[in-house]
Amino acid sequence: MNFQQLRSVRETARRGYNLTEVAHALFTSQPGVSRQIRELEDELGVIIFERNGKRLTGMTGPGKGILKIIDRLLVEAENLQQASQEYADQDSGTLTIAVTHTQARYALPQVVQSFRAAFPGVRIALQQSAPEHIAEWVLSGKADIGIATEGLSAFPDLVSFPCYRWSHVVVVPEGHPLLTVGPITLEHLAQYPLITYDIGFTGRGHIDDAFAKVGLEPDIMLTAMDSDVIKQYVALGMGVGIVASMAFDHGRDRGMRAIEASHLFAPNVTRLGVRRGAFLRAYAYHFIERFAPGVTRSDVEQALRVNVED
Questions:
Q1: pTM of this prediction?
Q2: Which residues, at least 6 apart from 242, have a Cβ–Cβ distance to it below 8 Å?
Q3: Which of 59, 106, 288, 308 lies most in the core, judged by the most C-beta atoms within 10 Å?
Q4: Do 224 and 98 form a contact (C-beta atoms < 8 A)?
Q5: pLDDT tens digits, residue range 75-87?
Q6: Where in the chain is the domain with CATH 3.40.190.10?
């Protein structure tokens, strides 16, 4: 039995039994993955995966139980490596943060600057993607911390903490008719083509829910992951933008105006997530406390401990 066999089983379960994706994730070949799985099954004397010919289709009952043990073994192996690095050199290493573009662009710069002043020997690696990919990276150990508005609390193997609340604003070019109306309404917005975030990004669900509750179908003519891209198309006069309030700067975003919209859409909560059972280095706790001032190291340690015991 070896760790490559265990990783092959875990990644196969995570990636829907698609061995091509598993091989890519593990930097090996598809036949190599199949061989690792067969060898582990032979050694244990247990069939872990259900098969239809050569294709894996699911997990057997015993396989599901074995997968839980494999997950714990691999997490503890990774924790052992992290712990050895912590005790060998507490002020160097790499802190990998998986984050959405909006958080990386607007919420993180001051925190990263402060963190670097405290830990100049620690390299920060920002990985930007969609919330579901952020969760996957944290769960797989490719990232130490995940930060996103949507999605992190939906994964039971992640421990997540609320960091701060924010709202959306409506962005229009100077001189736009919406600037002359009273308190803006969803009916006002529905008269114009809209430009906002992709589904699953930066509170998009609250935008869709607001229109659905009043029976309106907005003309969302363009979506993007990036707030700056949304504002660029608004500046071109292609539509009315809906972006995170933190993404609009009255001094920098010249030629555009922001209209208060907190009464239209439900507030959003940015969350920070770590993998349950993970060993976090001291500088990771420092980063968490800087990004989420209401969350302390003891809060995180207690949550991790409770989840492990459960």
A1: 0.71
A2: 168, 169, 170, 171, 189, 194, 195, 196, 197, 207, 230, 261, 265
A3: 288
A4: no
A5: 777 766 666 666 5
A6: 91-164+269-309, 168-266
